Q: What sequence folds into this?
């Protein structure tokens, strides 16, 4: 997960320039900015709008449509817990409830110390080894609340 | 000595990376010369991490292997060990399959083009390169292949429409936005045999006269993204993609695009909008994407498994493929068995096996050991089928006749602890979260649906009629399958499990 940085206009402009030649460059630009800075800062929207000759509202409309893009940085660790049916069939909802209670969070919230953000995800393709979760970029199958506690203790800086 | 430890996401989720590291370290410590290959998965997920050792008698398997088991495996000379499963292809779950699309998945190093060719790869494309576009499309039509993404539309007819369309540029778009719960076949094939998808897309391009392609892959699959990206680069370096496909005078290149977490982008017109850089809102059809697709140009939009199946059709011929199956469901279907099931994984077989055989015999019943209560087939928009429907053979028309759909062929098993009212509520909730918002029945209907199910949960039996009416409106009035098919799980739960909707006081689920 990239560090929380305040990007400069030039940093953003450079990323936009790298992708402008693509067909349909908007999603790749938003992904690249989020990859570089951990979020898509408001300051990026007018720059993107200008470069692609679309309105700022249109950029905002696209960005806000997709679950992946954030306006503000997430916690240092992002935990995604699968809520879909296959994981529910093996007790995923109870595990998720316990993990959220442990951390004192609701879905999509971040702990006050900025350590952990918990997000819902609807299928990780690990449906034959659920309940499934992702911590950072590592996938975990057959999780339990206890296992999540151990993994988080390991993973939290 | 060659040792295989899968790098498939499911195997990694169960500790395959740690096993691979332990195998390396142990071999080094003992001074044994090994080649460690990170293959895809054979699809027997309950045995993952499944370690395979190449012997004179073929590949022999051990599983599920933990990092702690590795030392004792070496002590046993990688032979006689409590975790030994014998020859991998003799394991009953594997032996009973007909693997055409997934023939190489788990067998080869996914990123070795040499191994890919040694196992039949590119022979289909070489044949296609010598054919006219008309003959290519005819071959696909005659194979009987129907879209494996869910809709089951005949692939050849779609290709024919694009072939007949006149345009300066046409596109092949691979829908790799596999968001359905209980499905992982796309992820598995991309992680385990990505060249078969590339080969299928190149053949599609030759068939319809398209020179550009896109793979739209969901962001929830980072492993698949990494493998696909690497495979495209390797294919380009090897001349499989580019201005001169395998040295011919035909051009085809493709690009990987990553989605951004919107389930509705699995709907083909939403996907096209997303690729164009717009909100992933559904487009009304007509016009068909085959005529006005990506950037308004003729476009083939096919699912991963449809395209990944094209090479074997060209390698072995349309008739060979068509001879498998049942009724109008031809060939094989990779069935994904998941949820509360003993033997979960990917089972590729000819159409026609009954649902009950798949759940009880192949899947071994529930993992919890409790009775099966319901099976959701076809993803979050698929119907919940009770054991009373288990005689239904796996086929498009046969499932339709039972009020269900096979969708992307995922089977999610639930035991008797499942609360069907909660699951019906979840289906509405999912629809509300993921609705693109363009049409009212889906956007508003799903929210009213949650409220109505809550009323039923509180004991208001009158609300059942309202829910039924609401579902009929969503089914008839929604622009795409998200709103249009959400009634399948909801109404099937209500129809088959009325006791769960009976007038008891249930706490509304947050």
A:
């Amino acid at each position: 997960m990239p560090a929380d940085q305040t990007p400069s206009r030039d940093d953003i402009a450079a990323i936009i320039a790298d992708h402008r030649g693509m067909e349909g460059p908007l999603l790749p630009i938003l992904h690249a900015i989020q990859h570089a800075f951990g979020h898509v800062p408001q300051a990026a929207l007018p720059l993107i709008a200008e470069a692609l000759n679309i309105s700022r509202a249109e950029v905002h409309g696209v960005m806000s449509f997709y679950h992946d893009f954030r306006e503000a940085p997430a916690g240092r660790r992002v935990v995604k817990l699968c809520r879909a049916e296959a994981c529910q069939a093996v007790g995923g909802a109870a595990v998720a409830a316990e993990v959220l209670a442990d951390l004192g969070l609701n879905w999509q919230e971040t702990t006050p110390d900025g350590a952990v953000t918990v997000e819902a995800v609807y299928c990780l393709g690990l449906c034959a080894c659920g309940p499934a979760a992702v911590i950072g970029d590592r996938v975990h199958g057959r999780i339990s609340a206890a296992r999540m506690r151990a993994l988080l203790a390991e993973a939290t800086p | 000595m060659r040792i295989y430890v899968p790098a498939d996401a499911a195997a990694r989720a169960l500790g395959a990376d740690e096993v691979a590291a332990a195998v390396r370290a142990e071999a080094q410590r003992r001074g044994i010369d090994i080649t460690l290959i990170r293959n895809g998965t054979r699809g027997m997920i309950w045995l993952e991490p499944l370690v395979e050792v190449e012997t004179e008698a073929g590949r022999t398997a051990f599983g599920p292997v933990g990092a702690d088991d590795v030392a004792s495996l070496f002590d046993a000379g990688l032979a006689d060990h409590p975790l030994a499963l014998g020859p991998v292809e003799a394991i009953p779950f594997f032996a009973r399959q007909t693997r055409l699309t997934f023939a190489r998945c788990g067998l080869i190093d996914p990123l070795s083009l040499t191994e890919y060719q040694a196992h039949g790869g590119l022979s289909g494309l070489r044949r296609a390169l010598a054919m006219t576009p008309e003959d290519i499309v005819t071959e696909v039509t005659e194979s009987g292949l129907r879209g494996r993404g869910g809709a089951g539309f005949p692939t050849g007819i779609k290709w024919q429409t694009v072939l007949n369309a006149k345009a300066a540029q046409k596109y092949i778009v691979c829908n790799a936005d596999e968001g359905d719960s209980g499905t992982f076949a796309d992820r598995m094939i991309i992680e385990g045999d990505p060249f078969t998808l590339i080969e299928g897309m190149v053949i599609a391009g030759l068939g319809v006269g398209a020179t550009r392609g896109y793979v739209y892959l969901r962001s929830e699959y980072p492993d698949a993204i990494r493998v696909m990206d690497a495979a495209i680069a390797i294919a380009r370096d090897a001349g499989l993609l580019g201005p001169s496909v395998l040295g011919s005078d035909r051009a085809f290149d493709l690009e990987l695009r990553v989605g951004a977490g919107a389930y509705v982008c699995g709907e083909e017109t939403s996907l096209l909008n997303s690729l164009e850089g717009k909100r992933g809102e559904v487009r009304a059809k007509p016009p068909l994407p085959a005529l006005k697709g990506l950037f308004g140009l003729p476009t083939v939009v096919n699912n991963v498994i449809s395209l990944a199946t094209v090479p074997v059709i060209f390698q072995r011929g349309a008739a060979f493929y068509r001879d498998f199956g049942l009724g109008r469901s031809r060939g094989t279907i990779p069935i994904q068995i998941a949820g509360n099931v003993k033997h979960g994984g990917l089972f590729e077989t000819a159409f026609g096996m009954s649902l009950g055989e798949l759940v009880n015999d192949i899947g071994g019943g529930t993992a919890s050991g409790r009775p099966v209560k319901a099976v959701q087939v076809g993803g979050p928009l698929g119907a919940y089928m009770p054991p009373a429907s288990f005689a239904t053979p796996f086929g498009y028309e046969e499932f339709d006749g039972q009020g269900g759909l096979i969708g992307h062929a995922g089977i999610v098993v639930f035991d008797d602890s499942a609360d069907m009212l909660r699951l019906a509520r979840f289906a509405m909730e999912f629809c509300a979260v993921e609705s693109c918002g363009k049409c009212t029945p889906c956007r508003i209907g799903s929210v009213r649906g949650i409220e109505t199910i809550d009323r039923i949960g509180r004991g208001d039996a009158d609300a059942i009629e309202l829910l039924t009416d609401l579902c009929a409106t969503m089914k008839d009035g929604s622009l795409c399958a998200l709103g249009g098919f959400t009634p399948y799980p909801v109404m099937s739960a209500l129809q088959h499990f009325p006791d769960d909707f009976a007038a008891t006081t249930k706490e509304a689920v947050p």
Notes: Residues 77-155 of chain A form a domain with the Glutaredoxin fold (CATH 3.40.30.10).
